[in-house]
Specification:
The chain folds into 3 domains: about 200 residues, Immunoglobulin-like (Sandwich); about 260 residues, Neutral Protease, domain 2; about 60 residues, no CATH class. It is about 25% helix and about 30% strand. It has 12 helices and 26 strands. A 7-stranded mixed β-sheet has the order 5-8-3-2-1-12-14. Helix 3 packs across helix 4, helix 4 runs antiparallel to helix 5 and helix 4 packs across helix 7. The protein starts with 6 loop residues before the first strand and ends in a 6-residue tail after the last strand. About 40% of the residues are buried.
Length: about 575
């Protein structure tokens, strides 16, 4: 069953629900009303969803279920009931799916609450950031985690290219008068209807409260930035980084896939030296600890912006069919490869910085205990094993590096991998312009595009590396910038003490008396103050500040294990490219 074409209208308010539109030609499909639970957003959200029941007298109701590795999201939904209309709600054997029986086409309103995630069962693997953030000062949530939907699209909330479009609008109303608002669609209190897929609406970010808003015009696109928190870098530096990133991206891909874009940057009080984010509809949500660096932020911003092209413009990803992690070597790995290109083109790193970034990925990949995991294992364990979750980024990045070099060599420098991706983007845009669906991204489509453009055959790599997990043999020489491969004996990243436990406890513990940390002066019982440079790389020292006997001490050392192995690394060789 699918809802008939109509208008999806979201209103965020504290008062009464507006009446249904009764236009027979354009019936209102869905209407959301969201208010603070018991008048206090820190206690959760009270939501009403109004719609016309299906013509056959039965409507399937889908609760949030899973998104970004978070499972059982329906546990945050409480007290779902019928508040208007002659209808009965029935549980099914699947906890996030209900059946609603009613008279054909009758107006219905369901109400429910979204509780603060701290009231929910324990969250796995950093899940708090991807659940609704509901406080007395601000709210921040992703649509997939909040909205109950009469059957439409897929229950994962991820993009489904097969769902038809709807006119979607929403309104913030009756929240505190000094609150500011932004979303993936607008910074206005009331947004005019926009033609969107419901799946795209669910893949959107919504923020309200005491946030700092900035609006910039970059290359003809309107950029909305919402920040909440304090970091060593300024809001102006964030805006400048976004300007550099977006300008370099548009130049690289030679097109502009959006008219407006929203970025949220929220402080993550639960972590140290970390930053992360997730790409959404015309937006991405970013989380950073207070000691995150500008360089870390620039890397994340560049990566997330690139998702507008990879895979956005190249082709749709069939995540709704459970293929997401199996294709992350492309959507995440290729994006990481071109992130380095964007950072260099935008002036955020120099040639040495580009080499350092590449070498860090090579070291991490080479020492990964899961380096040779199959793509099947990645698909099964991506969200549950952190090191496996990083493997598609590493594998795809190094495959892009390898294929880029092979294409350039085979064509005597006439073509690069970027030329192939440009051709795939044009093919996809032409398909949509002709009224057809967006072309899906598939490994076979990429293989055929590379063969047609350059004559290079990547089929063996797709089988041996992507599917089976063989180690990637990186090229001996790279251009732009000019780098040559060398082999160095290196160790793994080893902090020499229990870094995470010490930070959480505020007391240094577990220092290895034979390690580099001990040699640098770190001792059990010292008071942890902060990371000065929370290096996660072997290319530069790891620096932290501790206190002992009322005296502050800076500890600095290279966090490398004593056991080493040969690892490919790249060095600058500018003279060879002249």
């Amino acid at each position: 069953m699918r809802l008939t074409a109509g208008i999806l209208f979201l209103t965020v308010l504290m008062g009464n629900w507006p009446a249904f539109a009764q236009d027979n030609e354009k019936p209102e499909a869905l209407h959301y009303a969201v208010s603070p639970r018991a008048g206090d957003p820190a206690k959760g959200l009270a939501i009403a969803v109004s719609f016309l029941g299906d013509a056959d007298g039965t409507t399937t109701i889908i609760l949030p279920n899973h998104w970004a590795g978070q499972e059982n999201l329906w546990e945050d939904i409480r007290a779902l009931r019928v508040s208007k209309g002659k209808a009965q709600l029935h549980e099914t054997d699947t906890p996030h799916i209900y059946l609603l029986t009613h008279e054909p086409g009758v107006p219905i309103t369901l109400t429910y609450s979204v509780i603060h995630p701290m009231d929910s069962p324990p969250l796995p693997y950093g899940g708090a950031l991807y659940r609704p953030q509901l406080t007395a000062d601000y709210v921040h949530f992703i649509g997939s985690n909040v909205f109950v939907i009469p059957e439409y699209g897929n229950d994962s909330g991820e993009a489904d290219e097969e769902t038809p479009e709807r006119l979607i609008s929403f309104e913030w109303r009756n929240f505190p008068p000094d609150w500011k608002f932004t979303s993936s669609f607008s910074t206005k209190a009331r947004q005019e209807p926009e033609l969107l897929q419901v799946s795209s609406f669910k893949q959107a970010v919504f923020v309200a409260g005491d946030v700092r808003l900035r609006q910039e015009n970059i290359g003809g696109a309107t950029l909305n930035l919402a920040l909440r928190g304090a970091w060593a870098f300024s809001d102006d530096e964030v805006v400048q980084s976004l300007r550099q990133t977006l300008s370099a991206g548009m130049a690289l891909w030679q097109n502009q896939p959006f008219k407006h874009f929203t970025v949220t940057l929220m402080q993550d009080a639960s972590a140290s030296g970390s930053i992360g984010g997730t790409g959404l509809t015309n937006s991405f949500a970013t989380y950073a600890s207070s000691d995150a660096t500008l360089a870390q932020l620039q890397n994340v911003l560049s990566h997330e912006f690139l998702h507008e092209w990879l895979p956005g413009e190249v082709g749709s990803m069939s995540v709704a069919k459970g293929l997401g992690p199996s294709l992350y070597w492309f959507s995440e790995g290729f994006t990481d490869y071109y992130t380095g290109k964007i950072l260099r083109a935008g002036g955020m790193i120099d040639d040495q910085g580009y080499a350092d970034r590449l070498n860090k990925i090579l070291r991490t990949y080479w020492f990964s205990p899961y380096r040779n995991a199959s793509n099947k294992s990645i698909t099964e364990k991506f969200w549950t094993v952190a090191e496996i979750g990083q493997l598609p980024y590493q594998r795809g990045m190094l495959l892009a590096l390898k294929w880029d070099a092979e294409i350039s060599a085979a064509s005597d420098g006439r073509f690069t991998l970027l030329d192939v991706l440009h051709a795939m983007i044009k093919e996809n845009l032409l398909s949509k312009a002709n009224g057809d669906k967006a072309l899906p991204f598939t490994p076979k489509r990429l293989q055929q595009a590379i063969m047609a453009k350059t004559g290079v055959d990547i089929s063996k790599d797709l089988e041996a590396v992507v599917k089976t997990g063989e180690t990637i043999d990186v090229p001996d020489r790279l251009f732009s910038p000019c780098l040559v491969k060398t082999i160095r004996n290196l160790g793994t990243l080893d902090y020499g003490y229990q870094a995470r436990e010490s930070r959480l406890a505020g007391i240094i513990q577990g220092v290895d008396p034979k390690g580099a940390a001990y040699a640098a002066g770190l001792r059990d019982g010292q008071v942890f103050i902060k990371y000065i440079d929370p290096a996660t790389d072997l290319a530069k020292p790891f620096r932290l500040l501790v206190r002992q006997n009322d005296k502050e001490i800076e500890i600095s050392y290279v966090p490398m294990s004593k056991v080493t192995r040969p690892v490919p690394q790249f060095e600058l060789a500018t003279e060879l490219c002249q």
